Amino acid sequence: MKLGVNVDHVATLREARKTVEYPSPLTASLIAQYSGADSIVIHLREDRRHIKEKDAFLIKETIDIELNLEMSLNREIVDIACELKPNKATLVPERRQEITTEGGLDLFKEERRIKSALKKLRASGIEVSVFIDPNLSQIRKAKELNLTHIELHTGRYAEAKTKKRRGVEFKRIYQSAKFAHKEGLFVSAGHGLNYENVRRIARINYIQELNIGHSIISKAIFIGLPLAIEEMRRLID
Ligand code: PXP
Predict the structure, then answer these.
(1) Is the pTM of this model over 0.90?
(2) Active site residue 70
(3) CATH number of the domain enclosing 183
C-alpha cells in the first residue's frame, strides 16, 4: 500500500511565528521521500494558512516522488494547479472557518464546478481525484464523471467515540472501497489516521494508498525532541 505524507503542518508551525526559513515543508518533503513516502501531499488553501504557492513550486521542482495537491474548486487555485502541474490534484471541499477538511466533496451539489475544474486540470495533464465520504452514491457519481481516482474520507471513523460507532464507520469505508475497486477506481483513503487506528484501514486490500499528515508530524515532535534539546544544551554550554 502506498503512503502519501502530508507536510501541511510543518508550514502551520512556520506560520505560527511567521519565521521565513524554518521549519521548511520542502525539507520535510525530502525527509519523507528518503524515509519511504511514495508521495507528498500538500493543501494549498484559499486563505494560505499553511502552504504557500512558493512552497508548492519548490516542492514540485525538488522531489523525485509524486506530488498530490489537495485543492478546492476555487478558480484562482485551479489556475495555480494548472501551472504547478502536480502529478495528482485531489479536489476537496473548503470552508474558511474550518480547522481542517470537515467532510467529503458532494459530487452532486458541486457537479458544475467539478466539471469545469476537471476540464482545465485534465487539459494540463493532471490526474484528478476527489475526496468523498464513504458512500456508494458518491462513488457512482465519480464514475459518471469519468473519474479514475477517489479518496475516501476516514475522518468519521477516526473520530468515532465508541467502539460500536467506529465499527459502523469502518464498515462504510470497507464497503465503499470494495465497490469502488470493483468499479475499477484507484482508491485512496485518509484523514485523521494515526498510530492507533491505521492498521484496520491498512488491512483493506481494496485501498491502494493512505494519505496521512497530522499524526506523523505530531509523532515527529516527540521522536525529535530529545535530540533537539541536547543540541541546544550543547550550544549553550
Ligand atoms: N487527505 C485529505 C484529502 C485531506 O484533506 C487531509 C488533511 O489535509 C489528509 C488526507 C490528511 O489528514 P490528516 O492530517 O488528518 O492525516
Answers:
(1) yes
(2) yes
(3) 3.20.20.70
